[in-house]
C-alpha cells in the first residue's frame, strides 16, 4: 500500500473503514482501542532504585574491598571486617541516594502531553480524552488545537499548522485536503497530512486519523531512542583506568610481600594477612564518596544556574565537550516570529527592538530611538497590520508570551503593542470590521474592510510579489520596493507587504472585494524573523574562545540558517551541508571528516541529526547536542550529552536528554561546560592527593616487611587514615574555585588521562618522601623502650599530620 498522503481521500476512508459524515460508531472505537491500546507515547524506561543501587555496587574498588572483608572475616578479624564494610556502605550509599534524588527531580518535570480533542462518533460531535483516539476517528481541528494523532485531511478551510516540534521549521505550514503526491515526500512537504504533537494556527479541518500512539511520526522518533547506544562518559573511562591502576598496585604490593615472606621464612598465614593490609592500603576508599559528593555539588551548582542534570557522570562529561551541535529553532533562536525592520513606501527605514512576542520594545530610525506616535505614516502602517489580523498574544502560566494564531500575524500584533496599538482597543474606539477575506494558500493574502466615522478603509497584507502585482503605483515606486524586499530577503527575513485603499466604496462580499482593488497602494513592508536569543551571541563567542566548535542544525533553508549563524558569530558559517547531501555522502570514506569541518546543517531529518552526531563521535569529538523538538530526541539520546529545553521542550526531548535547561538559555550550556571543566580540574587534584596518601602507607609497610620488622600501623589505622583523615582535605580540594584559564584553553583531549606520567611521578615522589620519613620514625621508635601500641600510634599520628 502507498503512504496515506499518496492516496485519495475516499480510498483512505474506505481503507480505515470509517465514515466521513458519521465517523466511527462507539462500539467500533472501543474495539479498536482494545486492539491498538491508548493513544500515548510510551515513556522512556526509568532507572529503578535497584538498578541505581547496582550501578553503585558494580565497581572494581567495591569488589576489592569485598574480597578484603571476606578474607579478614575468614581470619576471625571481626573489627577489621566491620571497618571495611562500613567503608563500602559509605561509598555505595552516598552515590545511590544522590542519584536517586536527581532522578526524582527530573520526574517532577514530567507533564501529560495531551488533554482532550474533538471527534465525530455516531454522527455526533463530542469531546473525548486524546488518549482514547483510534485509527479511523474523524477529528475536528480548529485554531489553537493541539493535534493528538497523525491523520489525512479530508476537508479544510484556510488551514495551517505549526510543525516546528517535528520538523524544526518555525513558520506555519499551509495545509490542504486536495493535495496528493505520486513521489515520496518529506514530512514538512506533506501538505495533506497532520501529525501528532503539532498545533493548528489558523482555520479548521476535518481529519481522518491514520496512526496513533507509537505508530505516529512522533512515536516513531520516540522509538528510535531505544536504538541509540549508551557510551561510557569520559569520567567512566578515566575511573576504569584508575581502578585498573589500583588493582595493579595492590597485586604488586601483595605479591612482593608474599615473596619477601617466603624468602625470610615468615609464617604463610601472617604474610597473607599483611598482603591484605597492603591491598587495603592501596585502595583509596574515600575516592567513590568524594567523587560522588563532588559531582553532586556540581549538580547543585548547575541547578542554581538553571541546568538540571539527570545523572552524576554527565556533570563532568560536560567539561570534556568539544562540539556543541545546536538546534536552531527555539535554542539559538526564540522560535517566535518578530518584526525586526520596517520600510514605508517612501523608503523611510525603521528598526524594531525586542524579543519575540514580548510587547516590550522600541522603534529606531538611523540608530536613534524615536516616538512612533509622532509619525502619522508610520502609525497608520502599523495600525493597518494590527487591524488586518486575527491573531492575539497571551501569557502562559510561566509568564512566557505565546501567539494564538499564525506566528506571522503574531509578529504584527506584537509590533502594534510596542507602539500602543491593540485591535480590541481600536474596535472599542469606533473601528468596525465590515468584511474579511481570510488568508488562503491560493490567494496568499488577507483582506479586511473597516469603517470609522462613516469612512471605510480596505487593508490587504500578504506575500510581497502578490501584493505588488495588485497595487497601482508607478514603476519607479515598485522598483524601489523590490530593492527593499531583496535587502530584507538577503538578511533571511520573511517579507510581508501591507497595502490599503482609503475611502473604499466597493462591495462587501468576498467576490466583490476581490474585484474592487483598483487604487490599491502599498503602505510599506515588514521584515519578519525568528530572532536569535539575546544570550546566544555572547555564549557562542565564549564557547568558541574555549576551543569548542559550535554547529547549527536546522530544518530551515540553508541561506536562512547561514544568515542567522553569521549574526550570532558562528565560525565558518559559510560551510553548509543539507540533509540531501548528508544522505548522498553518508557512505563516503571522508563523511566523518566532512561533517567535522561543516558549521551549518540545513533541511535535515531526525535520521540526519543522528548521522551527524555519530560522525562527530567517530572523529573523537565529545558532542553536546541541544534541542527542544520531538525531531531532536534521537540525536539528544545518542550524543555524549543531550541537552533539552525545559520550558519549550517537548516531553520526548526531555526524556531523551541528559540535561534539561529550565530557563531555555543557550548560555546555560556554556555555564555548565565551565562547571564541568572546574570539576575535572578538582578531580585531578583530589585523586592525586588520595593516591599520594595511599603511596605513603604502601612505602612504609613494604619497607617494614623488607627489613623484617613488625607492622608499623594496624589495618584499622589504614582505614581510619583513608576514610577519615584523607576525606577532609580531599573534599576541600573538590571545592576549589575555577582556575583563571578554565574557559581560555581548549577542551580536554581524550589523551589527557588522569593516570599519566605526570600523575604517577607526583604521587610517587610525594608518597616515597613521606613514606620513608614515617619508616625512619618507626625504626627510631622501635629502638626505644616503647610498647608496640605506642609505636603504631605515633607512626599513625605522623602519617595523619604529614
* Biggest sheet details: 9 strands, antiparallel
**How many discrete domains?**
4
Instruction: Quote the beta fraction.
Output: 15-25%
Discrete helix count:
30
As for the CATH topology of the largest domain, it is Calcium-transporting ATPase, transmembrane domain
* Spatial order of strands in the largest sheet: 13-12-11-10-20-19-18-17-16
Structural class: alpha+beta
What's the alpha carbon Rg, rounded to whole Å? Answer: 34 Å
Mean pLDDT over the full residue set:
85
For the terminal residues, how far apart are their CA atoms? 79 Å
What is the assigned CATH homologous superfamily of the largest domain?
Calcium-transporting ATPase, transmembrane domain
Catalogue the unreliable spans. Answer: 105-114
In CATH, the architecture of the largest domain is Up-down Bundle
- Secondary structure: helix percent: 40-55%
How would you sum up this structure, described in words?
This protein is an alpha+beta fold and 802 residues long. It has 4 domains: 4-36 and 112-215, Distorted Sandwich (Calcium-transporting ATPase, cytoplasmic transduction domain A), CATH 2.70.150.10; 239-301 and 673-801, Calcium-transporting ATPase, transmembrane domain; 310-333 and 534-670, Rossmann fold; 338-529, Calcium-transporting ATPase, cytoplasmic domain N (3-Layer(aba) Sandwich). The strands form 4 sheets. Strands 13-12-11-10-20-19-18-17-16 form a 9-stranded antiparallel beta sheet. The protein has an 8-stranded mixed beta sheet with strand order 8-26-25-24-9-21-23-22, sandwiched between helices. Strands 1, 2, 3, 4, 5, 6 and 7 form a 7-stranded antiparallel beta sheet that branches. Helix 8 (234-263) runs parallel beside helix 26 (666-706) and helix 22 (591-597) crosses helix 23 (606-618). The protein starts with 8 loop residues before the first helix and ends with a helix. It is a multi-pass membrane protein.
